[in-house]
Predict the 3D structure of the following.
Amino acid sequence: MLVDCDPGHDDAVMLVCAAAYADVVAVTTVNGNVGLGRTTANALAIADHLGWDVPVHAGAARPLLADPIDAPEVHGHSGMDGVTLPDPDRTAPGDAVEVLIESTRAEEGIWLVPTGPLTNVALALRADPGLDERLAGICLMGGGGSGGNVTAAAEFNVYADPEAAAITFRARCPVRMCGLDVTHQVTTDATFAARVRGVGGPAATLVAEVVEAGIARFGRYATSTIDPPMHDPVALLAVTHPHLVEGTVAAIEVDTGFGPSRGATIVDRRIVTRDGVDPRVGVTTEWVHTADAPAMLDLIVDACRRWA
Ligand code: RIB
Ligand code: CA
C-alpha cells in the first residue's frame, strides 16, 4: 500500500490503522489541511511516535492550478493542535511523485490510498501514463454524493485541487471514492475517546487526543456533524477490510468550473440513460456509500492495542 496524506487529525488515525493493518511501502505528504512543511513534519512525528520505520516523502506544496487553501479552523495551524507530538528530528526528501512512480514499477498490484488533496496523485499519473495500470486501485477519501463541507457543493480534498481530482477519477484502475456521505457514518465522541484511552500506549493517547481535540473544535464550527467523523480511516479500512463497506459502480465527474459548484463530485446513479444505454458499462469508478461504523471503530481501538 502507498498512503498519500495531509496530517491532519484524521490522517493521524488513518496512519495508526495503516501501520497496524497494511504493508505500507511509503507515506507521501501533500499540501492540504496545513502547508506541506507541517503536513510532512506531522507525518514524520506520527511515525516516530509509533516507532514505525516507514519511508516518508514530501510532495506538492501547492495545487495544480487552484490557489492553496488550508483548514486551520479544523486542524489548527500546526495541523495537529491539541495533540502532543514532539517535532521530528528528521526531514523528508521532496520526491513523493517519483516514489509513487518507482514504487509501482518495483511492485505491481499496490493500492494507493490518498487522504488529502490529490495533487501528488495527479502529478504521478501525468508523469507516468502507465502508473494507473500497475496499481490494484486508488481508494481515496474525498468528495461525496450529497454535498460538501468547504462549500455547499464541495468536500475539502477535492475542492483544494479539483483539477487533480478530475485527473485521478479518470485513472484506468479501479478508483473508489469514500466521500462525506460514507465518512459521516463513522463518527466519534467522548465515550469513544475514553474507550481508546483505556487501551493505553502511544497510539491510544494519540487517537484519544485527536478525538478530544475534534470534539472541542467541532462544537465551535461544525459544518456538518458535531461528532468528529473518522474521514481518512474509512478510506484506509475500505482497503484492509473491504467487507466493511458497500459501494456502487458509478461514473464520477468533478466540476472544475469556477462557479458555485466548483469541486463538486457528481455521481451518476442512473442505470439507463435517455438513449437506453447503461451508463455504468466500462466505468472503473465506485461510489462507496455505506460503512459498518461499529466494526470500523472497533478496528481503530484494536489498532491502538498493537502499541499498548
Ligand atoms: O473533508 C475531509 C478531508 O479533508 C479529510 O481528509 C481531512 O483530513 C481533510 O484533509
Ligand atoms: Ca486528510
Summary: The longest strand covers residues 135-141. Residues 5-6, 8, 10-11, 32-33, 115-116, 232 surround calcium ion (ligand 2) (CB under 6 Å). The chain has a mean pLDDT of 95. Residues 31 and 37 are 8 Å apart (CA to CA).
